[in-house]
Recover the amino acids of this structure.
């Protein structure tokens, strides 16, 4: 980089830093005093729009509020957002009594309190077989497979609801891209440090931001000591830049993280267009200092609403609300996403990072595609040599220079007078206080959690408990223990292999146990992608981050390619193609284990259908498709009444009698949470392969369960008869209650193996 560019960057960063730390307050509500101090934000959900004209939809929202508040001015001051494109509803400042009163209005389906949700925070594409790839646009003729067939996703539009984007990032360059697709209806909004004309291009084609919900949640004013962010789509946090460029980032050669993971960085669909919807903000934590990415339901719903209008093909949402409960609010939080799916937009969501316990998976609605996280076949081994010449290896992001120091042990009960200044300390608890002690490095022995960090300015090394115990034994048997730590290196291939990350949330689904979640898994550990230069973990505009936040855009990028190849596929067809073709082993054929309290072979509650396999997903043979009728069956089986469903859909709808079974929802999986004796369920498959095909059933029954498929052969004879239905009878031989046992059902024509996971738990009535 030449001196003028370096100077320009320095000036920019200094200006940004000054802006971020100014303790200024901007009024959010011009007449806040007219509103009750006990007012909070509520989302008033009205279902499908009654008018095609968005202005008429908004006018109806004003009228409803005016009738409630008995004042036109108060109605205008109360309204936070009008949801006018994908569905009808609004967010407004209301007291609890006003919220209760408006919930009784005949046109209102539900009133939902505004909730705070959190962000779920190179080698990936080689690992998944979406390669080889050239190092520049000049040699694209060598591209093969799915990337070749879709022109690297050049006509796809990826929407990302997150913390915004850093528009100067090299990964957002539009080199080699043609004109913006004509169907695009979105826009770039100007704002603080964001010039729509300069910062948007043929790659970054949309930039919107949503601040009203989070500002209302913190008291009605934009206070920079609380929200340390830009009032624009510019990303102060870095999370949004990272996720957007994982999904659709452009080629950037010779990138590394302090020398680690060096190579070509790109998104899954390198020529796809990106639309950034900033609904998450860099907010000061309540305790402990620092900031987190926080997103409110009101802001997110408006982002969904605009994305539906704008014409995105896929929405990547690396956001969650923690472990879900079987509550009406949890179910309703997914309704905005439902409207996107109903309009043909695949919504990809993070499974969450609260694993590895059971029932922790987030984003569990059947219209969402929920993604777990796996490791790559890549590690960063770090050599630890003790003073007795014993050598151990652990992982870290330590890049040198070599450390050679004394060695000490610290725990929460250690005497504060123990002098560890200049030494490397061994700890077994991340809460052990080391701040201000002047340590040279930290060796943090822990259960495997697959999360590596640089620990700010102090190098951190991460051995497991076994190696930590070996180090502790050495310390306690040596008068003056010493240690030498060598910089990490990058190792790809064996012995590093794919496993489900310890932090990745697990099933079964706590809201609807018959709906398998997560759906699929993808790499989400130490993923190298672009990041905001304001993030302390960045190096030259790139960073290594881990989480289901990272695995989610991996799948979003693949879906952008699939939608380019199969533009008429529904979101359910896309999910089916991914689930039924997924790897049940690593790409190299090794078993996939699940990290947790005890390492075990991964099962469907760890990774859904398995590890995503992009090339096979392009030609799945059969798909388990779903449409509005199937989602109606789900809503009926989940207990929604006719009136609510009718207003959600904008047309009169009656639930069938008897009520549909959730077991019959046409998912690419079978999950039976309470099998007493036997049960029969149905599935329907659509042939998307050769017109004349014959598929035969291959059954792998769960332990103690007999699966019977009827018919055992599916014969597709013509283009007019591409849809066939079959039944599956499950019968248990268990005499006592059991946990879940797992199997699979495969339809094979000799070329395509269409595999769905089967999960069954026996429950005996007493």
């Amino acid at each position: 980089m030449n001196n003028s560019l370096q100077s320009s960057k320095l000036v920019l960063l200094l200006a940004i830093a000054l802006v971020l730390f100014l303790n200024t307050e901007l009024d959010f509500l011009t007449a806040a005093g007219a509103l009750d101090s006990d007012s909070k934000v509520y989302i008033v959900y009205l279902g499908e729009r009654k008018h095609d004209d968005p202005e008429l939809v908004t006018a109806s929202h004003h009228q409803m509020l005016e009738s409630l508040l008995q004042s036109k001015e108060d109605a205008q001051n109360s309204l936070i957002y009008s949801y006018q494109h994908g569905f009808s509803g609004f967010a407004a400042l209301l007291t609890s009594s006003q919220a209760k009163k408006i919930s009784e209005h005949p046109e209102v389906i539900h009133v939902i309190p505004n909730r705070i949700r959190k962000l779920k925070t190179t080698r990936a594409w080689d690992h998944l077989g979406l390669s080889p790839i050239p190092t520049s646009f000049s040699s694209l003729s060598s591209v093969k497979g799915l990337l070749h067939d879709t022109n690297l996703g050049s006509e796809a539009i990826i929407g990302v609801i997150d913390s915004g984007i850093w528009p100067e990032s090299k990964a957002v360059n539009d080199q080699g891209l043609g004109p913006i697709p004509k169907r695009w209806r979105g826009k770039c909004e100007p704002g603080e440090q964001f010039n729509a004309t300069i910062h948007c291009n043929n790659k970054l084609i949309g930039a919107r931001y949503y601040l009203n919900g989070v500002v209302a949640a913190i008291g009605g004013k934009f206070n920079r000591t609380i929200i340390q962010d830009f009032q624009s789509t510019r990303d102060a946090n870095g999370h949004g830049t990272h996720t957007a460029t994982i999904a659709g980032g452009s080629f950037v050669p010779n990138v590394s993280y302090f020398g680690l993971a060096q190579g070509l960085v790109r998104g899954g669909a390198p020529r796809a267009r990106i639309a950034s919807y900033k609904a998450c903000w860099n907010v000061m934590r309540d305790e402990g200092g620092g900031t987190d990415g926080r997103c409110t339901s009101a802001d997110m719903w408006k982002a969904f609403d605009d994305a539906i209008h704008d014409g995105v093909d896929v929405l990547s949402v690396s956001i969650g609300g923690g472990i879900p409960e079987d509550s009406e609010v949890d179910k309703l939080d997914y309704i905005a996403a439902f409207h996107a799916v109903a309009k043909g937009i695949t919504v990809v969501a993070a499974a969450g990072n609260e694993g590895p316990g059971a029932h922790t998976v987030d984003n569990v609605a059947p219209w969402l595609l929920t993604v777990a996280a796996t490791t790559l076949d890549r590690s960063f081994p770090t050599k630890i040599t003790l003073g007795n010449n014993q050598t151990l290896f652990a992982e870290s992001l330590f890049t040198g220079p070599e450390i050679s120091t004394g060695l000490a042990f610290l725990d929460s009960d250690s005497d504060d007078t123990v002098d560890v200044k200049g030494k490397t300390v061994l700890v077994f608890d991340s809460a052990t206080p080391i701040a201000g002690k002047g340590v040279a490095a930290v060796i943090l022995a822990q259960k495997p959690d697959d999360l590596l960090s640089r620990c700010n300015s102090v190098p951190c090394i991460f051995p497991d408990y076994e190696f930590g115990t070996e180090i502790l034994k050495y310390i306690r048997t040596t008068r003056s223990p010493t240690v030498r730590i060598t910089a990490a290196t990058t190792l790809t291939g064996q012995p590093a292999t794919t496993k489900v990350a310890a932090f990745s949330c697990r099933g079964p689904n706590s809201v609807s146990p018959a709906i398998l979640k997560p759906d699929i898994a993808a790499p989400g550990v130490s993923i190298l992608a672009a990041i905001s230069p304001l993030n302390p973990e960045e190096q030259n505009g790139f960073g290594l981050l881990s989480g289901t936040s990272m695995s989610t855009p991996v799948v979003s990028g693949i879906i952008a390619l699939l939608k380019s190849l199969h533009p008429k596929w529904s979101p359910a067809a896309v999910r089916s193609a991914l689930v039924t073709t997924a790897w049940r082993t690593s790409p190299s054929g090794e078993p996939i284990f699940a990290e947790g309290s005890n390492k075990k072979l991964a099962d469907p509650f760890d990774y859904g259908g398995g590890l995503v396999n992009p090339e096979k997903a392009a030609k799945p043979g059969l798909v388990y498709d779903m449409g509005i009728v199937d989602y109606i069956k789900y809503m009926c089986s989940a207990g929604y009444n006719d009136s609510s469903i009718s207003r959600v859909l904008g047309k009169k709808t009656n639930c069938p009698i008897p009520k549909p079974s959730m077991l019959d929802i046409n998912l690419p999986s079978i999950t039976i949470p309470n099998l007493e004796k036997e049960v029969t369920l149905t599935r329907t498959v659509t042939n998307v392969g050769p017109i004349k095909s014959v598929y035969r059933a291959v059954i792998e029954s769960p332990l103690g369960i007999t699966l019977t498929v009827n018919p055992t052969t599916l014969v597709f004879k013509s283009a007019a008869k591409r849809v066939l239905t079959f039944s599956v009878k499950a019968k248990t031989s268990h005499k006592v209650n059991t946990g879940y046992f797992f199997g699979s059902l495969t339809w094979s024509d000799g070329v395509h193996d269409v595999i769905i996971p089967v999960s069954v738990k026996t429950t005996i009535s007493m």
In short: The chain has 19 helices and 42 strands.
